[in-house]
Design a protein that fits this description.
By secondary structure, this protein is an alpha+beta fold. About 60% of the residues lie in helices and about 10% in strands.
């Protein structure tokens, strides 16, 4: 049996297993016949095994250069390094959908295995809905996006993957992180749909719904940041975020998932916002499918997207089915998810979370409108227009500042009615520090109301967050006479969600400060240099030390050796592969540029090679100084650490006298 037949056979087996699990799971779940659950679980395991095996077969085909397989002939090459040969599994449309199927199988398998002995009354419905989604993607792989077509008389070599995808190690991990975020939203969608189908939303639904949203949320967060880092470190255009349609596609489900996780706090504490919370879970998944359509249909022109394909209409039908299914569920079953208590005033914890949710929803709408409007205009009016950065910055940035403000105000407010005097007393020190930060920035020569507002609010939020982080530890040190480290450790382990949530908040603050500083205060210069000449860029000088060249198995390159001279006279050399360069791939007509980035804690010196003259030993450059830009990537450990702490299982503790307050009793409880 050749690899094409083996791989396609595994896909058909996966399609059969997924369809069986979907039909049996939904029908028996609606009839409440829990005896059929083992059959559904076994079918899910079969789907996961089939998809994993199909991906391993494709990797084997890529590594052995079996060009009789259509996808291998499309992206394989004998000169491509092994690591990028494996990475080429997700470097083109058909392979990315195949990889998507493997991740989906792993997620659904993990969910089914985790709850194999509990929550039987809703597992069938949830697994059935998840399997229905898996059926669609298995059908996609078996039909419009089939990578397994057999080529009777294959060539002896192939073109290799897209040069952009083998130009930097970040492409090894950036797409898988995004896929883990996108695909993982299938799980909360299945849980939420199961809750609506059954007409209930108790803790048996809510706890796994929250946890299984947090998992893809952190992967999506990492994927978005790594994508920005890749754009910054590889493309050489002097930026990391351009409101590109595909960038927006990953940002929108992140917004709704973040709103969902805050909304669950109100649901748990006040038994309110049930329908809104479920709607956010459904919307997050639908937006991932919309994002997948943007990336893979070819209707959007983006450096991130794949070429024109035949799967666009199929995805549009699936999006339509999801919208109809979700709206009908909310309309028919929504009345069963009635609030058990009324929300307090706006000046309360639940009021601030509701405002926070509305701001997130507004940003999502702004981004969605700006992304789809050119497509709608072209389709209906046959008129091409472009919605660029000015629209998104003008509309989304003020809303983002409002979100930052609420991150500081919310933790100071209690559940229910707030005492104005208590809130005022709590706000004095953080507010004063925020004003001092903004004033210090102004005295240092920084201008612009928006970045200064961000800096001031960042100081305000940081003080509030640190105070709420260590308040329980301070109480334990006073009441239990514990050492600082012990008090922090015990208080963190007893309120993991709260502690982890605030660490994540610190990461978000760092990102917002970095975005504001690097956007408002960047310095740019461009020009040509002869050997030994220097160019001034801000407080730095960049000296051109000549051209260099090299050859690797899959490419050749020419670089411009540089020396960055700091204000104090210290020299930092960027030579060879660390210098700005142009990479030449055998099967690519245009060179792929790579900038050099001299990274420092407070700023980066960024140089991109525009052109060169080897005979005259001259070169032209684009140069920038970006303040604080590295803080965007440095925030990843904070996001990961906070999420892991929040996800870590809570151990039951025996009650002790004079213990620290429970998480819900402490001002500033975070998800």
């Amino acid at each position: 049996m050749n690899l094409s037949n083996l791989g396609y056979g595994l896909i058909l087996l996966g399609l059969l297993c997924a369809a069986f699990a979907a039909i049996v799971g939904i029908t028996t779940g609606m009839m409440r016949k829990e005896s059929a659950l083992p059959l559904v679980q076994k079918a899910i395991y079969g789907f996961a095994a089939s998809m994993l095996a199909a991906n391993l077969v494709m990797v084997y085909g890529l590594l052995t250069h079996d060009f009789s397989v259509k996808y291998v002939a499309q992206v394989g090459s004998r000169s491509t390094p092994t690591i990028f040969t494996i990475v080429s599994l997700w470097s083109a449309l058909e392979g990315s959908i195949l990889f998507w199927g493997a991740i989906m199988g792993a997620y659904i398998f993990a969910f089914a295995w985790t709850y194999r002995k509990e929550h039987g009354r809703y597992m069938q419905l949830s697994l059935g809905v998840m399997a229905a989604v898996a059926t669609f993607f298995a059908f996609l792989i078996a039909g419009p996006a089939n990578p397994w077509t057999h080529i009777p008389n294959p060539l002896s070599d192939g073109p290799g993957p897209n040069p952009l995808l083998q130009n930097h190690p970040l492409m090894i991990i950036h797409p898988p992180m995004l896929y883990l975020g996108y695909v993982g939203m299938t799980i909360p969608f299945g849980i939420a749909a199961g809750a609506l189908l059954r007409g209930e939303l108790g803790d048996a639904w809510l706890v796994p719904l929250r946890k299984w949203t947090l998992v893809p949320w952190i992967f999506l967060s990492i994927g978005i940041i790594l994508g920005s880092w890749w754009a910054y470190a590889v493309l050489g255009w002097g930026g990391y975020w351009a409101w590109d349609p595909v960038e927006n596609a990953s940002f929108m489900p992140w917004l709704t998932a973040t709103a969902f996780m805050h909304s669950t706090m109100v649901l748990e504490k006040k038994k309110s916002l049930k329908l809104w919370t479920i709607a956010l879970a459904l919307a997050s998944f639908i937006l991932t499918i919309v994002g997948t359509f943007m990336t893979r249909s070819g209707v959007f022109n983006s450096v991130h997207s794949f070429t024109q394909s035949d799967i666009g209409p199929t995805f549009l039908v699936f999006i339509g089915v999801l919208l109809v299914f979700s709206v009908l569920l909310l309309a028919v079953r929504g009345h069963m998810l009635v609030a058990e208590s009324q929300l307090g005033s706006i000046a309360s914890r639940e009021g601030s979370i509701l405002l926070n949710n509305l701001v997130f929803a507004a940003i999502t709408f702004v981004v969605l409108l700006g992304t789809l409007y050119p497509l709608i205009t072209e389709g209906l009016l046959n008129k091409k227009i472009t919605v660029g950065e000015p629209y998104f910055n003008q509309m989304a940035l003020p809303l983002s500042i409002a979100t930052l403000f609420l991150m500081g105000v919310g933790p100071m407010l209690p559940w229910g009615q707030a005492d104005p005097k208590v809130v005022q007393r709590q706000a004095i020190i953080p507010g004063a520090i925020g004003l001092l930060v903004a004033g210090a920035c102004m005295l240092a020569g920084y201008r612009g109301w928006m970045p200064l507002t961000v800096f001031g609010l960042a100081g305000f939020v940081t003080v509030v967050t640190l105070r709420e982080l260590f308040l329980p530890a301070q109480q334990r040190m006073t009441e239990q006479k514990e050492a600082l480290f012990t008090a922090v450790f015990v208080s963190a382990t007893r309120a993991r969600r709260r502690f982890g949530g605030y660490i994540v908040h610190l990461g978000i603050v760092a990102i917002m400060v970095a975005v504001a500083a690097s956007s408002a205060y960047k310095v740019h210069n461009t020009g040509s240099l002869k050997l030994g000449e220097s160019m001034k860029i801000g407080d730095y000088s960049v000296r051109f030390d000549g051209l260099d060249k090299g050859k690797e198995p899959h490419r050749e390159w020419i670089s411009a050796n540089l020396t960055v001279i700091e204000p104090g006279g210290r020299e930092i050399k960027s030579h060879g592969t660390a210098a700005p360069r142009m990479n030449f791939y055998e099967r690519s007509n245009d060179p792929v540029g790579s900038p050099s980035v001299t990274e420092m804690v407070l700023r980066d010196v960024y140089v991109s090679l525009l052109s060169y003259d080897a005979q005259a030993n001259t070169a032209s450059f684009n140069m920038w100084v970006f303040p604080l830009v590295g803080w965007i990537w440095y925030a990843i450990p904070l996001l990961v650490l906070g999420t892991l702490i929040a996800l870590w299982p809570q151990r039951k503790q025996k009650p002790e006298p004079a213990a620290a307050p429970a998480a819900d009793a402490v001002p500033g409880a975070a998800p």
